[in-house]
Please model this.
Amino acid sequence: MGLHSVYLAAVWFALRHPPPRWLVAAGAIVFRLTMAPQAPSLSDDLFRYSFEGRVQSQGGNPYRARPADPPWKPLADPRTPGADFRAVYGPLVELTEWAAWQWPKAPAIVADLLVLLLVARWLPQRWLIYAWSPLPVLEFWGQGHNDAWVVLALVVALYGRESRAGLCLGVAAAAKWWPLALLPAFQRQGRVKWRDYVLAPAVVLVLLAWYLPGLEWSNAQFLSGFLGGWRNNDSVYGVLLWLMGDADRAKYLAFALFAAASLLLKKPLWVVVAMLAVSGNVHPWYLSWLLPFLLAEPVLALLVWAALMPLAYEAVIGWHILGEWRPLAENRWWIYGPVMLTAAVSWVCRDRFRLTSRSGPLE
Model:
């Protein structure tokens, strides 16, 4: 909690009095170097990345291989999750796993460093929002999560040349699929054209071509559990489940609400927020998806959400000690409670209680 408070205070100060770039850089480097040597202790995803990379190094297809399958079981670490499931990540992630299977944390670190360099160049006054955020430090350098590639592609799509935005959304979708839903909001902002509705999926298909023979419906069925099908640290999804009385119906409603948000909301930021709100499964590293948008629009409630989200790892303590996973621990309201309170206060006092820089919000 103390670290998160320091971060929020630093953001508040930096938006009004941008600190020297050397100070931001020094903090960013020190924070990251403290985490780089540590083995992942809060998530076992890195063992999955390593397994899928090993499968490919032996000529296998990760979209067909399961850690429990006899031919591939010797390649799996005992801590590899999802023994009975095939790969669900996008082809870009699978390619990075193949290239770096001996150093599974390396792709996330490389992507994060690229984000740091680009944000320092394009948004120097907002650099601290990303550089000092606990999320990329913990999730990319500590746990090695591949979401760093989504963040990198979104940063380029948002702040790079408009002509490349559609291509970058395709790259982001090739990592985690869902960024294709941002196309309508990006179009309303004038950053993508109609041709990008073809270009972005084409990028995914080109990268997927190598793996295409291995894809089956079961891959998509497991992936759909992100929005529903299982529950982990959810918020609004619990209301949907209560209303529908059935997990499958709640999942379909969550998909419908996400689709409506994608088609109707004007800003990509709020499409992502809506998706996370209705999702049945919200891991802490998912909040890193908000950071590219918060650089332009530093919404206080969302910064609080991103800062507090690592508290969700409280469930890991019981998992390691007792072997019990409590995905709906009451402690998650120590995250969502302050977020909702901050959002309410910000809305009531929106003219007095706002995070903005002296130069105003980014256009």
